[in-house]
């Protein structure tokens, strides 16, 4: 579903990604972890074509991001993205947050968009909040709305960038529960997260990044079960 091939990226003279290669097969859940500044957000944004890269290529569902002929907005509309900060539209109701891109990008009718949005809102347990504004919801609730909003676009893959790291601890699990459910339903997912409980539960593979490189890329059994490289071990000993 996603094939990242020898991707390198620079900000000026600073190399932020070095020869990154990995793939995510249909239905796989790949957890990306690593120290702050190691390039995790940058890597995941390249998959959504939100960050350009200078070398290599990324193929999403058979479509090359590096190919100048590729319609990037169209590709982006098929890739759901959930960020650390929920980035809901504060001046729109939850209902409208869910409907607007479906109408504007996918050309769905208002009725179709509302119907789909409400179903997804129900699925994340927030149907009763449809008429509220984002500011009236807790952080955990807003993040669940953000997930529902991404799902409303019928994505072929979902990308998450530390979706729980800005939340108060008591709200982390309600968001992880939604993500676990998605994973168990077979959604293809690439998740930057340090929630190793989540990784143990649903990850097909774990990628460990350090200084812009993919240092480990292995099954969760290998990642948690055997001694890894020194940097990964140091990292794990700090967060577990
Ligand atoms: P992570 O998500 O693993 O914490 P990032 O991908 O956000 O790491 O950042 C990787 C490195 O790239 C960091 O050193 C960061 O300072 C740098 N970086 C990120 N965005 C920019 C930018 N727009 N310009 C220059 N450097 C950047
Ligand atoms: Mg980051």
TrEMBL record:
Keywords: Amino-acid transport, ATP-binding, Cell membrane, Membrane, Nucleotide-binding, Transport
InterPro entries for the chain: AAA+_ATPase (IPR003593), ABC_ATPase_HisP-typ (IPR030679), ABC_transporter-like_ATP-bd (IPR003439), ABC_transporter-like_CS (IPR017871), MetN_ABC_transporter-like (IPR050086), P-loop_NTPase (IPR027417)
Gene3D superfamilies hit by this protein: P-loop containing nucleotide triphosphate hydrolases (3.40.50.300)
Domain of life: Bacteria
Entry GO CC: plasma membrane
CDD domains: ABC_HisP_GlnQ (cd03262)
Any one Pfam family match given in the protein's UniProt record, by short name: ABC_tran
Keyword Cell membrane carried by entry: yes
Domain ABC transporter: 2-236
Subcellular location: Cell membrane
GO MF annotation: an example: ABC-type amino acid transporter activity
Membrane topology: Peripheral membrane protein
Family, similarity comment: Belongs to the ABC transporter superfamily.
Protein's name in the database: Glutamate/aspartate transport system ATP-binding protein
